[in-house]
Amino acid sequence: MWRPVEEPWQYRVLDSMPPSVDLEQLRRALAMTPTERIEAMCELLRTAEALRRGMKQP
Length: 58
What we know:
By secondary structure, the protein is mainly alpha-helical. It has three helices and no strands. The chain has helices at about 10-15, 25-30, 35-55. The longest helix has 23 residues, at about 35-55. The mean pLDDT is about 85.
């Protein structure tokens, strides 16, 4: 299995940041109805599947 020689720089950046809640994202989620949240999640799933299919093509 491949292992990086050193820790990726992104890990160091994320570790240096204090843990927190994204208040704007929380506000948007609370403003949506349960149905809108499910529709948004379905759209995210469709996008992820499309990206995965696109990555498999040469």
